What we know:
mainly alpha
Amino acid sequence: MTEQIMGLVTGIIFGFLLQKGRVLRFEKQIGAMQLKDMTILKFMLSAILVGSVGLHILQDMGIISFSHKPMNAGAIILGGILFGCGWAVMGYCPGTSVGALGEGRWHAAFAIIGMIIGAAIYAELYPFFSRTVLAWKDFGKIGLPEVLGINHWIVIPLFWAAVIGVFVFFEKKRL
C-alpha cells in the first residue's frame, strides 16, 4: 500500500510541476513538434538530470535496484512511431494529456481514450508482435554505462555537461 501512496504523491507533484512549467499548454506541445519552443524538452531534460543523480545515489546506497528492460530494436522503433503519431495527432503525450484533463481541457480525454484503446489493441496483437517486430535485435538489459564500459558517475557528469550545453544553445536561439 505504501508504494501506491508514494506513487500517488509523486504523480500529484509531477502533475503540479507539469502545470507550473506550462508544458501542458497545447501551444507548447505544437511549438515542440515544430522545433520552435523547447520548453518541454528543457523540462524533461531537467527532470532527467535531477533523477539520474537521485536514482543512482539511491542505487549506490542499496535502497533501490534497477531492473532494465531489454533493449529491443523492434520495440523501440514501433513504440517511437506509435508515440510520435499519437503526440502529433492529439498534441499531447501521455503525461501531459492527463495533466491537461486535470486542468479542465476536456479534449484531452480523447487522447486518454485513444491510449487506452491503443493499449488494448496492442495487448490483443502482442502474440503477433512477439513473433515479428519484437523478435528483432535484442541487445539485452543494458544501460549507457554498460555499453561504454565505465562507471555511471563518469557518464552522469558528462551527460550534465552536454545537456547544459544544449540549454545554453536553446537560450541563445531563444527556444
